[in-house]
Design a protein that fits this description.
Two copies of one chain form a homodimer. Chain A is mostly beta strands. Chain A has a single domain, classed as Elongation Factor Tu (Ef-tu), domain 3 (Beta Barrel). Chain A contains one helix and nine strands. Chain A has a six-stranded antiparallel β-barrel with strand order 2-3-8-7-4-9. A two-stranded antiparallel ribbon of chain A has the order 5-6. In chain A, a hairpin with an 8-residue loop joins strand 5 and strand 6. The model of chain A has no long low-confidence stretch (mean pLDDT 92). At the A-B interface, strand 1, strand 4, strand 5, strand 6 and strand 7 of A face strand 1, strand 4, strand 5, strand 6 and strand 7 of B. Strand 1 of chain A pairs antiparallel with strand 1 of chain B, so a sheet runs across the interface.
């Protein structure tokens, strides 16, 4: 990308941040009004939702409708910290390290779902495959690009044999 | 997963956060000491790096070595905010909405790279396919699971015809 110097901090003055703060860029409206019944994974969900990007960020959505899918990055705001670092995941009865699971209960409760774009109207992105609680704060939207993002993972750890193959 | 009630906030008292703050869970050491020469995408990089997870989070790494790939979620700490909402990406000469690009210059400068695990020793994850500046703060690690994460994206917008197919 075109890097304009004034957009970059001085590497000489670089210090390691102890705290990293973000402001939500929007909110997602979904059919899931409580924590019960939310699909475990986006790839198993047919539910639709609407990402409302704050109008001040709308110009950033230009050209996004050309893509079929997005990474939706969000904040699991219902998680109370600190979380245990090992816990039983949904698909197993033995405790796993939380970085080896997709649990929302992580030190930094960041969620990532790959959602299909139905359409974009102004600042509203209508999406499919939603597995997110209603009114969840959105941190970022990135285009999903199969050629970058499809990796032939050859090991899937404790999940091997536990996940159902996609029907499509 | 097993949801323990005390880990969840009360949904009745839920308020929308204006600011969301995280603490890094570690740091990545890479060969890229300056912004020049960093690969544009992880899938084009053969470079290796070491994610140093802070020892207090080490128990969360249990079972991760069973997976071949991870999502590494990190903070582009060199980006100066605010950023323009449209900019010319690396692969085109016309301005695009930044949510339709992978530029680090985004309102919330969150990066996601899919990295191959070489090995894990204690709190150190040796990884491949690195496209990240040395000493970048790490926010989260999640297992990459092809069956969840491989989506047949059928539209790739302005990137169509611009990305080189993976050689593997």
């Amino acid at each position: 990308m075109e890097i304009i110097k004034r957009e970059i901090k001085s590497i000489k003055k670089r210090t390691f941040p102890k705290k990293i703060c973000f402001e939500p860029i929007g909110i997602i409206k979904t059919p899931f009004k409580s924590l019960k019944g939310i699909p475990i994974q986006f790839y198993q969900s047919e539910a639709e939702g609407i990402i409302q990007i704050y109008p001040k960020h709308s110009p950033g959505l230009k050209d996004l409708e050309g893509f079929s899918h997005i990474y939706c990055v969000y904040f699991f705001d219902m998680v109370k910290l600190p979380v245990p670092l090992q816990s039983k995941p949904f698909l197993d009865d033995k405790k796993k390290g939380i970085f080896a699971t997709r649990t929302p209960f992580r030190p930094n409760p960041i969620g990532i779902s790959i959602l299909e774009i139905i359409h974009i109207k102004k600042n509203l992105i209508k999406v499919k495959n939603v597995d997110i609680l209603d009114k969840t704060p959105i941190l970022d939207i990135k285009p999903y690009v199969s050629r970058f993002d499809y990796i032939k993972a050859y090991k899937m750890g404790w999940l091997d044999g536990k996940v159902v193959k996609k029907s499509s």
